[in-house]
Design goal:
Helix content is about 65%, strand content about 0%. It is mainly α. It has one domain. Helix 2 packs antiparallel against helix 6, helix 3 crosses helix 5 and helix 6 packs antiparallel against helix 9.
Length: about 190
């Protein structure tokens, strides 16, 4: 999943390189979810890097702890029995848990930043739903291929298999530009 987001830059002035967000897709859990054809679990995993990127922009931090804080929050809510649909109904609860987890890890995030995380989750949820709206074996295979570490262009593979998330990714890029106080490339040319 992180390769899809590889084109979105971090807010760090000293590092002008592309971000690679480690997500739950980097772990065996990904394979278990795909094998079990559990679309709600996959949707939660897809939202992780989007939330981590948002948190890194909010906190202006490139620390690996940013992704861990998002993982901590998701793990805590999943352990309490919250699934994707419940999180989608109440994204404020998820955002507050992320803020709490970030602060526990020493990442400076204010409570009012929760609204940005709510918006990020809504946008990420749209992407996740579009990617996993059909839990057929063929669709999950395409998703697995697109998210494999060796895949050079995951967006192309998704699009080739009928999953076009380009507009949603652009919307997310613009959102990150807004919260970073920058204009996106697309809006600066119009």
């Amino acid at each position: 999943m992180y390769k899809i987001l590889d084109v979105i830059k971090l807010p760090s002035k000293e590092r002008k390189k592309r971000i690679r967000v480690r997500s739950l897709f980097d772990h065996d859990v990904h394979h278990k979810m795909i094998d079990a054809e559990h679309p709600n679990g996959i949707k939660i995993m897809i939202t992780h890097p989007f939330l981590a990127l948002t948190l890194s922009h909010i906190a202006r931090s490139t620390s690996k702890h940013v992704g861990h804080a998002v993982g901590d929050a998701l793990d805590a809510l999943i352990e309490e029995g919250y699934e994707f649909d419940k999180l989608k109904e109440n994204p404020q609860m998820l955002a507050e848990e992320i803020v709490r987890a970030a602060n526990n890890r020493g990442i400076p995030v204010k409570e009012e930043d929760a609204e940005k995380l709510v918006e990020a989750f809504k946008k990420a949820a749209k992407i996740a739903e579009k990617m996993v709206d059909d839990a057929s074996e063929e669709r999950l295979d395409a998703l697995y291929q697109a998210l494999a570490e060796e895949t050079e262009d995951p967006v192309y593979i998704l699009k080739k298999n009928g999953i076009d998330i380009g507009p949603e990714l652009e919307e997310f890029r613009q959102f990150l530009a807004e919260i970073s106080g920058k204009r996106s490339r697309k809006s600066s040319t119009t």
